[in-house]
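Progress report, Aim 2. The chain analyzed during this reporting quarter is listed below.
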Amino acid sequence: MHAALEPALVEWIAAAAGGKVTRLERALARREAWLVDVERPGAAPLELFLRIAHAGDPANSRAALEKETRVVRALAGTDVPVPAVVAVEPQTHAVLFVRVAGRSDLHATPPEEQDAVYRHYLEVLA
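Predicted structure tokens for the chain:
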């Protein structure tokens, strides 16, 4: 289940989330991302989203991920919906976020649904 990630990174996820990693699935995204589920003793399971930076890819560099994390943290508590940052692992340049509901295939939805999503996006930005 964890063959694609370094064991130390999987151990960090478990420790940061306070439980056992039960799902680790590569997310379909341009930047490296993983869907992660963690079972915790005496608590509800956590559904998380892991992002990992890579050198040589400007859109996925360490600096880009650090900036993304700072922006998400700055927007927490505002009217802009953002996921919570659970933990940052500086050695592997990974960030663990709370996973939020949604989908990544807007291009495959009917035009009226796309329009509604874009309008909502612009309302949030405004």
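Strands lie at 20-26, 33-40, 43-52, 85-89, 94-98. The mean pLDDT is 90. These observations will guide the mutagenesis work planned for the next reporting period.
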